[in-house]
User: Fold these one by one.
Assistant:
Number 1:
Amino acid sequence: MAIAVLPASVRPALAARLPGWLEPRWWDGPDSLVALAPAAEIGWFDRHDKPPVLRAVEQARGLRWLNTSYAGVDWLPLAELERRGVALTCGTGLTTGQVAEFALLAMLAVAKDYRAVVRAQDRHEWLDAAPGTRDLAGSRALVLGHGAIGQAIDRALTGFGVEVVAVSSRRPRNWRSLIGTFDWIVLAVPGTPATRGLIGPADLAGMKPEAVLVNFARADCVEQDALVAALRERRIAAAVLDLTDPEPLPPGHPLWAFDNAHVTMHLSGIPTPASQARAAERFLRNCARFRAGEPLEAQVDLGRGY
């Protein structure tokens, strides 16, 4: 028997379907997670507040496989997991569609200034003309990062007639020299040391005044102080920020007040019933792979960080 310490939130989807060789122990809060973790050979420790998760990982000295539904794993002690020989599986692909939909929603909202439409309705005011006159069709988008989420955003934008140029480690391009030719700069890169500070003052200065920066990657991929200055001075048209530093964004932060900042509060990847069902199905498939000693689905390369 192998002991698996699993979240009670997935118990309805998993309890009756777990293999007989696995003994589940269900945690339902930070205290029970930390208390149960030392016995775990298999762990699923997801919580939005990370300190209890990190304590659980540290105390689970017999851990052989750690599963998470989060696509980004840069918050975990990857070097320590590698040193201990722990396999890590992540949530890549589980929320791909919903994140792409959120990105498209936000970009359309900027293009059509939908925020102004909603506010007019709140005032019971009938507008005579659309407040936003940008079209997605015929515009150009630079998509930095072409994993599952970047590819899904690419497909969605292409369907709306956007010319997409995608960049990834497998498809490197000299994108910085071309940054001034794009209407949209979309970030979908993994969170690694190599992507920290990816967009800095020089990149923002190179964008055209009509450009919109769209970040669905990590907050630290953008030098936020430089972005705040660019938005304040209207050197770029707008920014869509699913990620900010810190999170939650403090009430007095200037990004709340800028009319050209669209803060989506890291909502795009919050699990939905459909993505939770996909996570449970993947976990069950990986249980069979783990038992057979086979490579796990969505296994993280701990050296690369994704």
Number 2:
Amino acid sequence: MLSSMTGYGFADGQFGGITYAVEIKTVNNRYFKSKIKLPEPLSFLEGDIEKLLQKGLSRGMINYTLSLKNAPADMFFNLDEQAIGSYLSRLSRIASSADVRCQIDISGLLTIPGVLAPVPPDEKKANEIREAVLNITQDAIQRVRQMRSVEGAALATDMEKNCRVIKEDLEQIRSRSVATLKEYQEKLKKRVDDLLANAKLQLDEETIAREVAVFADKSDTSEEIARLDSHLQQFGQSCRTEGQAGRRLDFITQEMLREANTIASKAGDTDIIRWVVDIKCCIERIKEQVQNIE
């Protein structure tokens, strides 16, 4: 079954008294691309998370965010109190010598490089955190895939409806093409007869037959109709197969549009042109939907 590239998944879990919350948002993209936001002390997890995302969500723009709740302030960050004391002492001395009264913003001091530094966990702790976070991430990915499947089914239903409309119009064109040739032959013969009536001349049937044959060859769309019908069958089969079908469906849709354009260029009948316009409108709607298929 088809799967959309648009989805959302959230999962959380506790480890060591800390709540790890994973949020994943995905939108359509031609290839796999990820944006991973992690707390700085847990940046060592980025490579493992990237591999897990690529395995579970093979295509699309993936926005991944890991946040922590109830984490002790000193668990992942080291506050250099000696450095802060030194900065405060210097600032106080400068303010006193200049006879200036001012308030020192402690939060501003924390932004000075080296004052608040991340402290990565030791190897044992890092492995435990890695296992916990990846398990939570896997749960979030599964929820994204569930949402993608639901939307993919809705997209498939809409595209199948448009394919049925195309097939119906194609049958109309096939039937009309036969009638158009016969009408052309009758109109040609009547026009020639009218032009030659006063001149009392006659045009042999063989000449008219050759002209009709030339017209039939130029306006013959049987191959294009057969190919477009074949593309419709391939499209339906691809929609029912497992795995990624987005790129294949995109290619088939382009070929469908090409055949429709060729039919329009060969057609000299207003009814056929009208049906081709309807077909092209349906193909364009399908193309829009295909862009969001994984």
